[in-house]
C-alpha cells in the first residue's frame, strides 16, 4: 500500500493535467487537483458539463485542445464512449512521454483502445464516487484507490501516478497496487452480482412484510429507508462485516443474525455468482453490452418503467411527500 510518505507532488512539477469529462468523477478530480496546486484543463464537448466547468472557474477547452495542452491526461468519461473519443480526439494528440490515466480498466482489459508505445499508461481507480472523493479531501482525509502501471515509457510512470494520487488525496487513505484486469473484473462483478442481490433482498423483505399486513411506510423505513442499515454497512467497511454486528448489535440482534446466517442464501446463489463471473471474464458481458448500446439501451428503459411502477418506489415517493410536507 502506498501512503503520503511514498508520494510527492514534486514528481509532477511543471506538468499540466487534462481532466477529460466533467461528470461525477471529473468534477471531483479537477477540484482536488486544483486545490493541490496542480494546473488543470478540463476537456469536454460543448454541453451542460462544459458550462458547469466554466462556472466553477476552470480553463475549459475541447478534448483535442486539452490533450494538446497537457502532459498528463485523465480519462473520466463513460466506458461506452471511450473507443470513439480516444481514437479521434486523444490518441493522435498524445506526445512522447505523456502520462495517460484511466479511472477504470474496462477499455484496456477488453482491448477496446490501442495504446501508443511511447507514453506512460496507468490505472488510478478510486473506490468511491465523486461526492465523497471531494468531501473527504476537504476534510483532510481521502478515499482508497487502486493503482496499476500498465506501460512505463518514461521509467517514471509510478512516481508520476503517485504524484497525482497525492494531489487527489488518495495517499492520505492508501493506494493499493491492483492490476487493471482485476480491478475491471471486480467492479463488474459487484455491479452484476452483489448490487442486484442486495436490491432483490430489500425488495423481498419489503414484500413479505406488506403481504403479511404491515404498513408499507414503516416497513420500508425499518428495512432500509431510515438509513440505519446503510450506517451499519459504512461502519462495517472499517470494523468488518461480522465485527460490526458484535460491536453495534444488541444480544437480541446478534442472536437473530446467528440463528439464520448461512441458511437463507445457499449454493444455488453461489453458483449463479460463479456463472456471472465467468461471463465477465470470457467477454460475454462485453458482447451483450455492445449489442445493447448499439440498440440504444432498450432494456434500461424497460427496467426504469418496471421499478418506477413497483410498490417499493411508490412507498418511497409517499414517504418523501410526508417529509416534504413538514
CATH top level of the largest domain is: Alpha Beta
Gyration radius from CA atoms, angstroms = 22 Å
Uncertain runs? none
> Could you tell me the strand content as a percent range?
5-15%
> Into which percent range does the helicity of residues fall?
55-70%
Average pLDDT reading? 95
Considering the protein shown, what is the CATH homologous superfamily of the largest domain? NAD(P)-binding Rossmann-like Domain
Number of DSSP helical runs = 17
The appropriate CATH architecture of the largest domain is 3-Layer(aba) Sandwich
Profile the largest sheet: 8 strands, mixed
Structural class: alpha/beta
First-residue to last-residue Cα separation? 48 Å
Number of domains: 2
Number of strands: 8
Shape: globular
Query: Strands across the major sheet, in which order?
Result: 3-2-1-4-5-6-7-8
Order of helices and strands: EHEHEHEHEHEHEHHEHHHHHHHHH
Per CATH, what is the topology of the largest domain? Rossmann fold
